[in-house]
Amino acid sequence: MNEKYLAGFIDADGHLSVRARKGARPDLELSVAQRAEYRHILEYAQKQFGGVIREKFDGKHLELQMRSGPARKAMERLKKHMVLKRHHAEQMIDLIDSADILRTDEDVRAVRNRVKAIRQQGVGVLPNFPARKWLAGYADGDGSFAVKVCSKTGYAYPKLSIMAAPNYTAGIQLIKKCFGGRIGRQGDNFMYSIELSQPSKATEFLGYFAKHLHVKKGQAYFLLGCAKGGNFRDGETIREAIKALNAQQHRLSDPTSHASRLIDTISFDIEKRPTNWIGRGAMKRQSNLHAM
């Protein structure tokens, strides 16, 4: 774990802000939340920058809260690695550096409105490619693995999805530009999905950053193992393995070793589907051709 990883994690799950109170100068705030099982990520950030870790939601989640000096230290050191919130961090630092004591309620409202306006601003210039450790932190923060199984062939269709708020889509846009995939609307937010059913695609994408993951390393290494095996034909077994890894990930002391044991349960010698199998889209195209 390092600063690039934390920058990606905070781009996904962090909250940057400015505290405005009458009778005081504004000061910086940074908070980041995670399930209690992954306390070590928050403790690592706390060791680097300071702050206080508090329980949320009956102890099921934890939040690292930083203010003033610790928040500034974190923003100053991490902003150069951020993709989504770098511009926000820079402007919030400029805001407090140029602010005086807030003497009226109007002064407080002006600062709060300025912070809202900063959050609405998009990213300036995207990097040409995401850093490996940044991508690992970002995927650990907002990503999820799932598997669908084709009822006709039994093939597994694994994918990684990443959720993004409307004003924080730059991260998924960058990943899509570099690795493909698609972005669709999910309620008020946007969802990026990349299909990993082709061994070459799974190897290209997951192989780029899997070793830097902390939360989802087991799932990534399991799918990489399936890709190395040559196919995803043992669909039901693969789906159940990903379900088990999603449920157990916080209890795995060695996720890569557990992933290797699950790979040993997969059958890679299942025969390919018949060459005369016709998918639904192909059948529709054929019927249209016959009707012409």
Average pLDDT metric: 88
How many structurally independent domains?
2
Distance between the termini: 60 Å
Looking at the overall shape, the CATH architecture of the largest domain is Roll
**What is the number of helices?**
12
CATH class of the largest domain: Alpha Beta
The side-by-side strand order for the widest beta sheet comes to 1-2-4-3
CATH superfamily of the largest domain: Homing endonucleases
CATH topology of the largest domain: Endonuclease I-creI
Q: Please provide the ordered H/E string of secondary-structure elements.
A: HEEHEEHHHHEEHEEHHHHH
Principal-axes shape call: elongated
The number of distinct β-strands equals 8
Share of helix among residues?
A: 40-55%
Structural class: alpha+beta
Tell me about the biggest sheet? 4 strands, antiparallel
Beta-strand fraction estimate: 15-25%
Gyration radius, in Å: 23 Å
Poorly predicted tracts of residues:
277-292
